Automatic annotation (TrEMBL):
Keywords: Ion transport, Iron, Iron transport, Signal, Transport
Lineage: Bacteria, Pseudomonadati, Pseudomonadota, Gammaproteobacteria, Oceanospirillales
Signal in keyword set: yes
Cellular localization per UniProt: Cell envelope
GO cellular component, one term: outer membrane-bounded periplasmic space
CDD domains: FhuD
Annotated ranges, domain Fe/B12 periplasmic-binding: 34-291
PROSITE patterns: FE_B12_PBP
Protein name (record): Iron complex transport system substrate-binding protein
GO biological process: iron coordination entity transport
InterPro entries cross-referenced by the UniProt entry: ABC_transptr_periplasmic_BD, Bact_iron-sidero_bind
């Protein structure tokens, strides 16, 4: 005798297999949601895309050097970027680990914990702004949020366009530096984040000397003396430097020739679009406040 229940069992069997296969395939291709990173540029991009990492390195130093976007309190601190706490990272069990090429020597150890993706930025011969946008899209693709990348890119471009409209047409060339000690500075030029922002703001960089792959040269203070430009100093200052500058005749000569510098709060000079926005806002606001005096 034919029993309807037997037909039901026969149907359910293949359907169950199909359902299990579909579920497994969906799980296998789902975008990773628990990402760890040692790189602050990737970290700030993830935060700006509304997908903060579950773990990052040197969180306190990130707050000192990058500042914004702020690292959420939920992010675990892995310790030094070059010597992360691998036991802690393993216990967190991230889906993937994102790094930049400077941490390539750690890949063999990191791969024992989770798959590792390396994202490059500031490549020689590449247009910096194009690379910033490419990095944003690459990170967004990893978390399956391509629309978030589009929004971040468009918002950054719109903000810089608005900031550009606030500047005077006769703005002087700028000389952008960051102190390494009381006698040496990084001076920023071609290939760097600051240069990419200056170009979009219609501003001129007074430094035409050679720069490294990260867009800066390390020079003594006396290299700044003969340059006719408005000086911009980006914090933070190394310990003891501000006190030393107060007694430095060389620094006083730089200030005498160029005027009091514009002092900007910290910006990650090796950052991506979030740092580009921060630098542009701080710079334009400082220029407006100085011009209004």
């Amino acid at each position: 005798m034919f029993h309807p229940s037997r037909l039901l069992v026969r149907l359910i069997g293949p359907l169950a297999v199909l359902f299990a296969f579909t579920t497994a395939a969906t799980t296998a291709t789902a975008a990773p949601s628990r990402l760890a990173t040692l790189d602050w540029t990737i970290a700030e991009t993830l935060i700006a895309l509304d997908q903060p990492p579950v773990a990052a390195a040197q969180v306190d130093a990130y707050h000192a050097w990058v500042r914004e976007p702020a690292m959420p309190s939920s992010v675990s601190d892995l310790g030094l970027r070059t010597q992360p706490n691998l036991e802690l990272l393993a216990s967190i069990d991230p889906d993937r680990i994102l790094i930049s090429p400077m941490f390539a020597n750690l890949v063999p150890r990191l791969e024992r914990i989770a798959p590792v993706d390396t994202l490059a930025l500031y490549s020689p011969g590449r247009d910096t702004w194009d690379e910033l946008c490419e990095l944003t899209r690459s990170v967004a693709a990893m978390i399956d949020r391509p629309q978030a990348a589009t929004r971040l890119i468009e918002a950054t471009q719109a903000e810089l366009s608005d900031l550009k409209s606030r500047l005077n047409d006769d703005a002087p060339p700028l000389l952008i530096v960051q102190f390494m000690d009381a006698r040496h500075v990084r001076v920023f030029g071609e290939n760097g984040l600051y240069q990419a922002v200056l170009e979009r703001l219609g501003l001129t960089n007074a430094w035409t000397g050679k720069t490294n792959a990260w867009g800066f040269s390390l020079v003594p203070l006396e290299a700044l003396v003969g340059i006719d430009a408005r000086l911009v100093v980006v914090k933070p200052y190394p310990a003891g430097v501000r006190a030393s500058l107060a007694d430095s005749g060389l620094w006083q000569e730089v200030v005498r020739r160029q005027g009091a510098p514009l002092i900007l709060e910290p910006v990650w000079s090796f950052g991506a679009l979030p740092s580009a926005q921060r630098f542009a806002n701080l710079l334009v606001t400082a220029m407006e406040n100085t011009d209004a005096r």
